[in-house]
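Q: Convert this sequence to structure tokens.
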Amino acid sequence: MSPGPYDGPEYKRLLAAARRSLERTGGDLSGTVSVRNPGEAERKAIIGVTGQYRPEGVGQMTVRLADLDLAVREAAGHGLAELLERLGPPLRDLPRAREKLATGRDAMIRSADESFLAAREWYRRWVADLGRDGVLTKLVNAACERRLGQAVRVLEALDGRAEPVGLAELAAAVTGDTHALDHGTTLATLVLRALASRADLPRPASTEDRREVWDAAGVIVDDLASRVLVLNLPARGKGLGEWLSGAAALGVPFYVTLQQLVAMPVTVPAATVRVCENPAVLRRAAGALGASSSPLICAEGRPSTAFHRLAAAVVSGGGSLEYHGDFDWPGVSIAAAVIGRHGARPWRFSATDYLAGVRAGDDYVALSGTAQATPWDPPLAEAMAATGRVVYEESVADDLIADLTAR
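A:
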């Protein structure tokens, strides 16, 4: 249906101002709108609406919305709101939209707070961040509020889980859809942000970052990509156990995948197995010592699911782990995870060792990130905070290699 005499260009700015006012106030007609520096056609049109003469060259013309509504009714048989709807786009009720948004956000936060995870600092930080950077607003506007509840259920399912779980299996168990946690889905993005917060990792930005976060939570994205680097760790078991023993006899570094560990479980005879964080240390041990090196596993940064499975095999076989890593806050966090999960002992990873590394080091890299506790040696965290310097594992490799010489 035609909007009648108000579809001309002389009414365009007046009606645009009226639209902004009605949307802002939820349709209230008690206010006024203005047109600045009206053209001649606009001036005459507004005079026709108000019945009040204004001279040429007037700088601003103000119209009461009630008068404009009455004029529209007399000319077109319907009110101002109906005219604007017919001209399009549909009028927005911004007060109602704000109320709906606030109600939706509050409901999501209340629901999230009902989880037993609400007692965890990382969880509260995650929920607060979602509200602070507009994610909750986007969920409400997209009518996807239920995704936050699903994310909470996923996090609850992972809490305290001892065995790794496949990504598709986890998605199906929580949502009934094996693809619900695929890369790019809203649910996967929400869960990954939470798990990164839990592991004190940066928000994942690449495929490798995402795999690292899933691995840290014991979620298998790709059982071939989840791997652990090993030197001189003989084991029993058909296939993988034979390969590990053969590689140990030759002093050759060997990559073990999660798929191999699951398909061909191994038994590791009782032994003290040292763990380093950086592959450069293992590479140097292989080059300098070969088959005479003590058993060594490399976490390669944040330990993978494959690492944890092999570490558990060492411990279940009666052996023990000793851990060394970078003296920086992420390295301390990794050490705490390995020590706490597998009962590992620190390996030259005390305040004394740190301060010796600081004195011996020529390069200076400042500590950054969130400070971490060192419950196995509280003075270590204090010394690191006071000194403010990073000591990378490679810079103290001489002492580590010396420890590995006596197999």
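The chain has a mean pLDDT of 91.
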